[in-house]
Amino acid sequence: MSTEKVRSTRLKFKGEKNKKKRKREHDDECRVGNVKRKEEEQDPETWVFPEDQSEIRGPTFIYHPSDPSPISINYNATANRIILNPLGKEKVEETGEASTSLLERIPTDVSQVWVVTRVAGSPTINLRTGTGEGKFLSCDTHGLVSADREARGPQEEWTPVLFPDGMVAFMNIYEKYLGVDEVAGGSLQLRGDSEEVGFRERFWVKVQYKYKKEANEEEKKKKNVTTVEADLEEANLNRTYQAWGAGRVVVSNEDKKGLKRAQKEGRLAEAMLDRRAKLKSDRFC
User: Residue ranges under compositional bias (Basic and acidic residues) (predicted)?
Assistant: First the structure.
């Protein structure tokens, strides 16, 4: 009877454990499903932070956490020049407090948007104005930044550097960094001659969700292609060096003929040795 009780208790314990495990697996599946649905339901036009430099593409909003007010990099199509424009604090009528935090800022005017393009496989990007005729952000050897060229060349190339906190620095072809500089009169302008990355050289960058998703899908495709190529290469090596079929080695017809010839010659040599041995034996007898 005691044996039956022990057996019954163990079976009951196993049943309870399996039930909990199934519930936990179901909960995990629900969480994953909710995250995927949330991502799928997200508006493609939503402005988000990039998590990798490859995700910086398409319409892009670049702003700097200056004090007392953050500033955005704008392009004035009428004046044909870059302007660092303070981002106004949106007030809530009842409380008088700012309704939008620094990280929640999004562009409110087309002059604040730059279009990022890149050559496939290249780490560098081009920043083109989103308004006017489309001019590229450029930096010369003296660190002067402008946006008055319709064609892109080396001086229009920028390498985005993403930091762990999510902020981005932009390095030009001369390995100098884009930064905010204060000039006479207290006004601000962009310079491209900073040797190191400090507060002035770090920007917040936002892209539209659909372009971030596009970059992730492209990266997955690249990884899949790399995996397939690696598998094919391994399969070719296996076909070349491994034995096929019950430990037998598959060889060409020429190799087979050579093998038979060697075997025949070997048998003839053995026969001659046996004959000589027998003749010597007969002489001594």
Answer: 25-40
